[in-house]
From TrEMBL, chain A:
Species in which this protein is naturally found: Phoenix dactylifera
Name used for this protein in its record: Methyltransferase-like protein 5
Top-level taxon: Eukaryota
Domain Methyltransferase small: 29-111
Family: Belongs to the methyltransferase superfamily. PrmA family.
Automatic annotation (TrEMBL), chain B:
Primary gene name: LOC103711248
One Pfam family recorded for the sequence: Trm112p
SUPFAM superfamilies attached to this UniProt entry: Trm112p-like
Domain of life: Eukaryota
Protein's name according to its UniProt entry: Multifunctional methyltransferase subunit TRM112 homolog A-like
GO biological process, one term: tRNA methylation
Oligomeric form and interacting partners: Interacts with TRM9.
One GO MF term: protein heterodimerization activity
Family, per entry: Belongs to the TRM112 family.
Length: 186, 122
């Protein structure tokens, strides 16, 4: 595993571990959970550790999936990975109970995270957990409730992400972003 | 890739209307035991496309599933065990998923199906 990927993985794990999803809402244990845009697999892995019955982790990047697959294997977890563009997902039925995701924030491709949210709310039968920049809070709420007909949209907590310089397009060595953890009911 | 995931996937090429189920061609698969959760199985049964599950299981040489199933069978431990085994304990490592309408192959390598579309398929 490259050092940058390790840092990214640990950073996300420390700052966003999702015990609330299980302890408060019971959305993970014994459920079918999908991780949209899984990257190195953190959220899907956390869900498996919290007792999800079946986890499907999806990303467009096959190299990220190889790393995610190794991470899951290291922890002896059975997670299904799919290499796919979320926009073109051919998914039958309402077999997924909960979607968890840390979508791209839309700094390069505007609105990327909202695209993810729209699809997540179609796919999940019970709950969607998602992260979006705090600066977009009102927009996220409106989109979820008005455009996607979500039954509810609640900010569970506000987090601060230390994003290290992970990608070539990152100009600074490190940056702090205020991020909301949302729970939506489709 | 478990057969539960296979039961959810359909061909995602633009214009395809009969993209489910994807035909499973398996070259390598493994069995991994995992604890049976009867509540989970009973809950998910109504959402499962049974013929697709039975067909995929047969492609892996597991012929113990009946051709048809109804909810009353969930009372029998034996049926639950077979359902559980097919759904969650068979993992396809190498092979392909084939679209029934176009014949397009989506390869499976190291257990990961590649469903990325070409530009002209979107």
């Amino acid at each position: 595993m490259k050092l940058k990927q390790v840092e990214g993985l640990l950073g996300t794990l420390q700052q966003f571990s999702n015990p609330k999803a299980e302890s408060t809402f019971g959305d993970i244990s014994g459920k079918v959970v999908a991780d949209f845009g899984c990257g190195c697999g953190t959220l899907g892995i956390a869900s498996a550790l919290l007792g999800a019955e079946h986890v499907i982790s999806i990303d467009i990047d096959s190299q990220a999936l190889e790393i995610a697959s190794e991470n899951a294997a290291d922890l002896e977890l059975d997670i299904d990975f799919i290499c796919c563009d979320i926009k073109n997902l051919g998914w039958r039925g309402q077999l997924v109970n909960t979607v968890v995701m840390n979508p791209p924030f839309g700094t390069r491709k505007k609105g990327s995270d909202m695209g993810f949210l729209t699809i997540a709310l179609k796919v999940a039968s019970e709950a969607v957990y998602s992260l979006h920049k705090t600066t977009t809070r009102d927009h996220v709420k409106r989109t979820a409730l008005r455009d996607c007909n979500a039954k509810s949209a609640e900010v569970l907590c506000e987090l601060k992400f230390d994003v290290p310089q992970l990608y070539k397009f990152h100009k600074k060595k490190e940056v702090d972003i205020a991020v909301d953890l949302w729970r939506f009911v489709p | 890739m478990r057969l539960l995931t296979h039961n959810m996937l359909s061909c995602n090429i633009k214009g395809v209307s009969n993209g489910f189920p994807l035909r499973l061609e398996a070259e390598k698969w493994v069995e991994k035991e995992v604890e049976l959760n009867a509540d989970f199985l009973r809950g998910i049964f109504p959402k499962i496309e049974w013929k697709a599950l039975a067909g995929a299981a047969r492609a892996l040489g597991y012929n113990e599933l009946p051709d048809e199933a109804d909810a009353s069978m969930l009372d029998a431990d034996d049926f639950l065990r077979r359902f559980h085994h097919a759904l969650l304990e068979l993992h396809v490592e190498e092979g392909a998923l084939v679209c029934p309408e176009t014949g397009r192959r989506f390869p499976i390598n190291k257990g990961i199906p590649n469903m990325l579309l070409h530009e002209d398929e979107v």
